[in-house]
């Protein structure tokens, strides 16, 4: 049985890294934030969050670093909701298989994208900076949840609504989102998302409309 030498192993890793970088560049071009050469656009305007993005090579390096520690992929895959790990620029560097299956893509196809781009928010493509940089993003609950988690180093949870294209036009998508810094590194944030069902919203509306309930006159006081 032939055992590859160090040179062969390094060449194999290098080729895999180049292939991954090309795939990330392709994904970024699809959401309109990279030129055909895969370099960042020269002018990135923003009305909210910083528009700058990590390069495809930087994302590939972070992705490989997280993959080499199996607990991170296990963490994402064990979460009950679709989840991802974001870098400081709010780009995906690791995605759960549940999220990829939901979107009918491979996990690697999500690398380099931001949450709003993945979920197809109509505002994520309004400016050259992508998700988090349009006029609407300043009030986006999803973006604010990520910002606050990164800024405070604590877990943040919020309910929010984004606008997504549908055959009949633009329709709202109601979500509950979680963001928490990865304990092993303050460079990364775990981000999970759950679609809120109509029954969730109906129950809340009923509670709000019902108001405080009178005490049961037949109940015994504690």
Nearest-integer average pLDDT: 77
CATH class label: Alpha Beta
Count of structural domains: 1
Can you give the helix content as a percent range? 25-40%
User: Would you identify the CATH architecture?
Assistant: 2-Layer Sandwich
How would the global form be characterised?
A: globular
Structural class, please? alpha+beta
Give the SSE order as H and E letters.
HHHEEHHHEEEH
In total, how many beta strands? 5
What kind of sheet is the major sheet? 5 strands, antiparallel
- Give the N-terminus to C-terminus distance in angstroms: 77 Å
With helices defined by DSSP (H or I, 4 residues minimum), what is the helix count?
Answer: 7
Strand order of the largest sheet: 2-1-5-4-3
Proportion of residues in extended strands:
15-25%
């Amino acid at each position: 049985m032939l055992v590859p030498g160090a040179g062969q192993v390094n060449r194999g890793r290098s080729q895999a890294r180049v292939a991954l970088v090309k795939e990330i560049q392709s994904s970024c071009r699809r959401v309109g934030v990279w030129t055909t050469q895969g370099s960042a656009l020269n002018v990135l305007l923003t009305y909210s969050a910083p528009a700058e993005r990590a390069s495809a090579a930087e994302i590939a390096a972070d992705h490989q670093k997280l993959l080499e520690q199996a607990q991170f992929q296990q963490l994402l895959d064990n979460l009950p909701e679709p989840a991802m790990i974001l870098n400081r620029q709010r780009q995906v560097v690791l995605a759960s298989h549940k999220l990829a299956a939901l979107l009918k893509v491979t996990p690697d196809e999500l690398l380099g994208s931001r949450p709003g781009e993945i979920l197809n928010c109509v505002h994520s493509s309004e400016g050259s900076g992508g998700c988090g940089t349009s006029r609407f993003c300043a009030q986006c609950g999803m973006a604010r949840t990520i910002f606050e988690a990164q800024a405070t180093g604590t877990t943040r949870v919020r309910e929010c609504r984004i606008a997504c294209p549908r055959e009949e036009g633009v329709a709202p998508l109601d979500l509950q989102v979680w963001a928490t810094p990865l304990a092993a590194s303050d460079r990364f944030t775990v981000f999970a998302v759950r679609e809120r069902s109509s029954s969730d919203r109906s129950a809340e509306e009923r509670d709000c409309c019902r108001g405080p309930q009178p005490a049961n006159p037949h109940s015994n006081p504690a």
